[in-house]
Amino acid sequence: MTCKILRKIMSSKNFVVHSENLTKPTQHMQSTNQESFVGHRNYSIAGETFTLFVSSWNAGGITPPDDLELEDLLDTRNCKADIYVLGFQEIVPLKAGNVLGIDKTNISSKWDALIEVALNTRMATKGITNEPEIGETQRIYPMKIPNSNNSIVPDFRCLISKQMVGIYITVWARTELHGYIRHPSVSCVGCGIFGFLGNKGSVSVRFFLHETSFCFVCSHLASGGKEGDERQRNIDAASILSRTLFPTESLQHLPRKILDHDGVVWLGDLNYRIYLPDATTRSLVERKEWSTLLQNDQLKAELAEGHVFEGWHEEEIEFAPTYKYNQNSDDYYVTDHKLKATERRAPAWCDRIIWFGKGLKQIQYTRGESRLSDHRPVKAIFMVGNEVTGTKKEPGSPMSNRFVDT
């Protein structure tokens, strides 16, 4: 009887709730701190170098308000990247109805609507763009031709998106890049209840940008702050690596496993904590002694010991722990000392972005400051392309002459 129930759950359309645009090219993502990114803002396609924005945010099961401002997260006023990859965890509460696919929600569409507005600011300004700053090279894009409704073609369009319970990943790219992005597809792995339900696990997407393959893994690993819980997180990560499998296409030799791709970015609430007593952790956080805390960070320790993510990279962390905050506050959650140690929630860098392979050069790693949930989002900027991978451009490639520097 149990097996029949589980098979019914797994076959439910709500186990993997949302999938769209699997064959269309996408949009781009952005974000950056102005100091580190402004020098990389505009690239000639002749060099085939692009900017990639990646972000992860545990939304804490809170529905975003209609007026949620994503400027802090996307930093669109300073500059725009070419491709945006946004990963979320707990976009719905992890209650039984959502985990089992009983409750019907459409929160992902609301997040997409907010992202679309934030990225397509030209739509609101009727095509008016800012003049380039002094000394800044401007990238010239093909003219945006109004459609029959006399509206402007959006700067960014969604390439691919997918939801599994509370885990959601959505990829946006500049409209004019969609024709150069191929083979988008998705793969979902549940690691939660019974070892496979989607309250924990991953949603991965992959695509080719020109001749380079990229894979993005959005995950929510096992929670828990007691000693030994990190081992279950390691098991979840290993399970995701072994079980993620992308579909094949006829006459195409496409990568099927995560590590088969040229460049891989893993983002999400990885849930790794800090190997220190609660009081010590809070004292060090108050004094902003990040280096001492990071020396006791579980993920860094597990990486160093070779227990998980062997060969992966993470940029230096120079920001405060992203978890756990009081909602609508800049104050960390204060643990009730009457609670068991396993129920306490000391500050930690639960939310991370790591990467593997070639085709990527990270130039920024920071966090956002939205108070929507008990987590702060993290974000990273990468440069991608031939200048990074060393891949040779074929003569006459359509990408070599599409844009011109002025």
Shape type: globular
* Average pLDDT figure: 80
Strand order of the largest sheet: 1-5-6-3-2-13-12
Please tally the helical runs, counting DSSP H or I stretches of 4 or more residues.
11
Q: In percent terms, what proportion of residues is strand?
A: 15-25%
Gap from first CA to last CA = 68 Å
Report Rg. Answer: 21 Å
The proportion of residues forming helix, as a percent range, comes to 10-25%
Q: How many β-strand runs? A: 14
Question: What are the main properties of this structure?
Answer:
406 residues; alpha+beta; seven-stranded mixed sheet; five-stranded mixed sheet; 11 helices; 14 strands; 24% strand; disordered C terminus
Task: Tell me about this structure.
- By secondary structure, the chain is α+β, with helices and mostly antiparallel strands.
- It contains 11 helices and 14 strands.
- It has helices at 2-11, 34-37, 71-74, 96-99, 107-119, 121-124, 229-243, 278-286, 290-294, 298-304, 386-389; strands at 18-20, 49-58, 83-89, 139-140, 156-164, 167-174, 181-190, 201-209, 212-220, 263-269, 351-357, 361-367, 378-385, 404-405.
- Strands 1-5-6-3-2-13-12 form a 7-stranded mixed sheet. Strands 7-8-9-10-11 form a 5-stranded mixed sheet.
- The radius of gyration is 21 Å and the shape is globular.
